[in-house]
């Protein structure tokens, strides 16, 4: 419903009375402006802190009252007050002053103008008061139209600013992921993207090459109550997960319907300012995803592998010093010994469980482990030497690119149980 069609007809007599009352107020505009500003100040709206002492606020209030009086005095046609209302709504949105505050000021202005019109009429033409009261419906309808214009402009500007803010928020988020920015940038990104500046976050790293054709568009923005914002860097997509009260177990379960492989989940950090660290931790987790086996890797469950992956030079020395004699064997024997060691470690040192997974007799597992101990000069019963062997075999896996607990290249385990 437009301003032109919504306004009820007004009689000639009503119009004359209203015009007479309004003309008596133009000279009192400075006084009315002071009254309105003082009333707004008295209400102590925190959203207007710092605005009321600005001369520009007084001037804007004055211009708004004047435009409203001019509109009330007209019987139709041009409405300069609507243009002013649109500009005011835009300015309030740009200054992040709540819409409710703007509308309260407009209604308060309407009350002050109406009271002043009644004062003028009672003082100079008291016989016209009944007619003025009849015309009140038109005056208040115009105030409502102005409030509607303010609200429409405010919301339109808010949508535009929101779009701009979100874009800037993503740019700030990218900078935080790259290690550029601190608390100030984190606060700005939080405000733009409706995220808490301080909170529990984790970063997920996904190799783009591992995504199915449809996965790129299907990466979830929310899963199991966890909000995810995805950003791209080269061949990796990074998901910034706001965990809230959820844990990494929840995050892993939330991702599984969408992602099945080459996914690294870092550790929990305490705010957006720590995203660069969270990204690095996710990349470390991703770096332990070797081979073709589908795998979501959580750093908190693969810390030894992460230590090896982050020190490639030391890993190379570890492979050579600890497993050099094993690596020098013929490929078939080498791969059999390495796989047996890995499976035995994955089975927490249980020879029986390792034999089940390897489809062989437990004595075969024992014989292979003794052969490996003889070649390396290290005992699996010795904690420190067992640790060296565990890290060294992980270094071999990462360097060769075969999956955890799987066959090294050329191993080709038999699908049928063998008790040899």
The CATH C-level class name of the largest domain: Mainly Alpha
Question: What's the Cα radius of gyration?
Answer: 37 Å
Overall body shape:
rod-shaped
Structural class from helices and strands?
alpha+beta
- Low-pLDDT residue intervals, each spanning 5 or more residues: 1-6, 213-217, 402-420
Report mean pLDDT, rounded to a whole number. 82
CATH topology of the largest domain: Globin-like
Structural domains: how many:
3
Largest sheet: 7 strands, mixed
Just name the CATH architecture of the largest domain.
Answer: Orthogonal Bundle
The named CATH superfamily of the largest domain: Globins
Q: Number of helical segments?
A: 18
Identify the quaternary structure here: single chain
Share of helical residues: 55-70%
Q: Summarize the helix and strand pattern as letters.
A: HHHHHHHHHEHEEEHEEHEHHHHHH
Number of strands: 7
CA-to-CA gap between the ends? 89 Å
- Give the DSSP E fraction (strand runs of 2 or more residues): 5-15%
Describe the structure using short key phrases.
420 residues; alpha+beta; Globin-like; Arc Repressor Mutant, subunit A; 3 domains; 7-stranded mixed β-sheet; 18 helices; disordered C terminus
Give a written overview of the molecule:
This protein is α+β, with helices and mostly antiparallel strands. The chain has three domains: 160 residues, Globins (Globin-like); 101 residues; 89 residues, Arc Repressor Mutant, subunit A, CATH 1.10.10.2840. Helices cover 61% and strands 9% of the residues. It contains 18 helices and seven strands. Strands 1, 2, 3, 4, 5, 6 and 7 form a seven-stranded mixed β-sheet that branches. Helix 3 packs across helix 4.
């Amino acid at each position: 419903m437009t301003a032109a069609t919504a306004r009820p007809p007004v009689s000639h007599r009503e119009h004359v009375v209203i015009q007479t009352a309004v003309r008596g107020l133009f000279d009192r505009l400075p006084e009315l402006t002071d009254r309105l500003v003082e009333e707004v100040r008295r209400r102590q709206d925190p959203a207007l802190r710092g605005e009321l002492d600005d001369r520009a606020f007084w001037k804007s209030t004055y211009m708004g009252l004047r435009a409203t009086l001019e509109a009330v005095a007209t019987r139709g046609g041009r409405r300069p007050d609507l243009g002013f209302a649109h500009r005011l709504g835009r300015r309030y949105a740009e200054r992040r002053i709540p819409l409710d505050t703007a509308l309260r000021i407009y209604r308060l202005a309407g009350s002050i103008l109406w009271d002043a019109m009644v004062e003028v009429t009672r003082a100079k033409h008291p016989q016209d008061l009944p007619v003025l009261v009849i015309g009140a419906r038109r005056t208040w309808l115009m105030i409502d139209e102005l409030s509607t214009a303010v609200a429409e402009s405010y919301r339109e500007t808010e949508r535009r600013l929101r779009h701009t803010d979100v874009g800037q928020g993503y740019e700030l988020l990218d900078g935080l992921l790259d290690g550029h920015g601190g608390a100030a940038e984190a606060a700005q990104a939080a405000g733009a993207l409706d995220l808490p500046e301080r909170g529990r976050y984790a970063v997920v790293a996904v190799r783009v090459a591992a995504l199915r054709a449809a996965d790129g568009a299907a990466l979830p923005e929310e899963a199991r109550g966890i909000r995810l914002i995805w950003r791209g860097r080269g061949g990796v997509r990074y998901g910034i997960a706001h965990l809230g009260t959820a844990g990494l177990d929840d995050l892993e379960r939330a991702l599984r319907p969408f992602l099945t492989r080459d996914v690294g989940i870092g550790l929990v950090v305490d705010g957006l300012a720590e995203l660069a660290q969270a990204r690095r931790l996710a990349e470390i987790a991703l770096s332990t995803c070797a081979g073709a086996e589908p795998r979501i890797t959580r750093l908190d469950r693969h810390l030894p592998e992460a230590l090896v992956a982050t020190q490639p030079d030391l890993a190379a020395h570890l492979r050579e010093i600890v497993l050099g004699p094993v690596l020098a064997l013929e490929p078939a024997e080498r791969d059999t010994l390495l796989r047996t060691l890995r499976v035995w470690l994955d089975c927490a040192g249980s020879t029986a469980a390792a034999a089940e997974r390897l489809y062989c007799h437990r004595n075969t597992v024992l014989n292979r482990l003794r052969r490996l101990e003889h070649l390396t000069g290290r005992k699996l019963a010795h904690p420190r030497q067992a640790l060296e062997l565990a890290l060294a075999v992980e270094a071999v896996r990462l360097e060769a690119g075969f999956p955890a607990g799987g066959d090294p290249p050329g191993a080709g385990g038999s699908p049928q149980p063998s008790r040899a």
